Amino acid sequence: MVLALGLQHQGIVNPYMAELLAFRDAISIVVSRSLTHVIVEGDSEVVVNQIRQGVIEDSIGGPVLRECLEILSSLSVCIEFRTVPRSANSAAHRVARKALLLSRVELESFEFLGWLL
Questions:
Q1: pLDDT of amino acid 83
Q2: By three-state DSSP, how is residue 39 classified?
Q3: What are phi and psi for residue 52, nearest 5 degrees?
Q4: Can you name one GO molecular function term for this protein (predicted)?
Q5: Per-residue model confidence (pLDDT) at position 84
Q6: What is the C-alpha to C-alpha distance for residues 72 and 13, in angstroms, rounded to an integer?
Q7: What pLDDT is attached to residue 14?
Q8: DSSP secondary structure string, 74-100?
Q9: pTM here?
Q10: Which pairs with CB-CB distance under 8 Å and at least 24 residues apart come from 90-94?
Q11: Mean pLDDT of successive 10-residue segments in the chain (117 residues)?
Q12: Do the beta carbons of residue 65 and residue 56 sit within 8 Å?
């Protein structure tokens, strides 16, 4: 299954915070759908590494990162976090742009593939 999610977070202008919130949203979907084997991809190497390593810094994103790590520690799920170069992530860009217009975009496998064409 392929799932793409785009949400608007009002007032967020910092790209680092936007990436952290996107990862938190992805983790929330894993929980709400009771998924067991998941690959979460993002183009922020900093965020992916912080989540992989469990590093919480005293920065603007510290509370959100802490929340992500707490949720992950409570799950018995196989989640792999991957960095995808922005240049190879045009699908995510389209979903994000659409979310700016609609405030929320959630697409599953068959919808996602047709929507991108």
A1: 84
A2: strand
A3: -60, -45
A4: RNA-DNA hybrid ribonuclease activity
A5: 80
A6: 26
A7: 81
A8: T---EEEEEE--GGG-HHHHHHHHHHH
A9: 0.71
A10: 91/4, 91/116, 92/4, 92/41, 92/43
A11: 64 80 86 85 85 81 90 86 76 61 54 49
A12: yes
User: Which tokens sit at 100?
Assistant: 């700016």
CA dist., res. 51 & res. 41, Å (int): 12
Smallest CA-to-CA distance from 43 within 100, 109, 103, 91 is with: 91
CA neighbours closer than 13 Å in the CB half-sphere of residue 67: 13
Instruction: Return the structure tokens found at 45.
Output: 């190497």
CB 83 within 8 A of CB 45: yes
Phi first, then psi, for residue 33 (nearest 5°) are -100, 5
CA 24 to each of CA 7, 28, 94: distance values in angstroms, whole numbers, following the listed order: 11, 6, 20
**Beta strand ranges found along the chain (DSSP E):** 3-7, 37-42, 78-83, 104-108
Domains of the chain: 3-7+15-116 (3.30.420.10)
Residue 29: its pLDDT value, please?
A: 84
d(CA 104, CA 28): 15
